[in-house]
Design goal:
elongated
Length: 122
C-alpha cells in the first residue's frame, strides 16, 4: 500500500512541476508579447509623428487642404469597394520566371528569382 501511495504522490509532484513549468513558460510568453506590443506602439507613434510633419510641410509648401486629404483617404479606402478604414490587400504577384505565386519574400521560394517589390506592398 505504501508503494501505491508513494507512486501516486510522485505522479502528483511530477504533475505539479509540469504545471509550474507551463505557467513559467506562459508568463515568459506574455512578457514577450507585452514587450513586442510596446515596440509596435512606439513605432506607430513615430510613424504618426512623421506623417503629421509631412502633412504640415505639404500644406505649407504646396497649399493642400485637410479636405483634399480626407477625400484622398476615402478614395484609397474605397479602392477595394469597402469603406472599412483599411488599405486593399493586393493579390500576391506571380514570379516573373516560374509563374508561381510569390510570397512576401523578395526572392521566389520556388525558383530563387529575385524580384523588385512595391515599397507600399503589405
Amino acid at each position: 500500500m505504501n508503494g501505491l501511495f508513494a507512486a501516486g504522490a510522485a505522479r502528483q509532484l511530477a504533475g505539479a512541476a509540469e504545471a509550474q513549468l507551463r505557467a513559467q513558460a506562459a508568463s515568459i510568453s506574455a512578457s514577450e508579447a507585452r514587450r513586442q506590443n510596446e515596440i509596435l506602439a512606439a513605432d506607430v507613434d513615430k510613424l504618426f509623428m512623421i506623417t503629421q510633419a509631412l502633412w504640415e510641410l505639404l500644406k505649407k509648401e504646396h497649399g493642400y487642404t485637410d479636405e483634399l486629404l480626407a477625400e484622398k483617404i476615402t478614395e484609397v479606402d474605397l479602392s477595394d469597394g469597402k469603406l472599412d478604414g483599411k488599405v486593399a490587400k493586393k493579390e500576391r504577384p506571380d514570379c516573373p520566371s516560374c509563374r508561381k505565386k510569390m510570397g512576401r519574400h523578395p526572392v521566389c521560394i520556388w525558383c530563387g528569382t529575385a524580384t523588385v517589390r512595391d515599397p507600399f506592398e503589405r
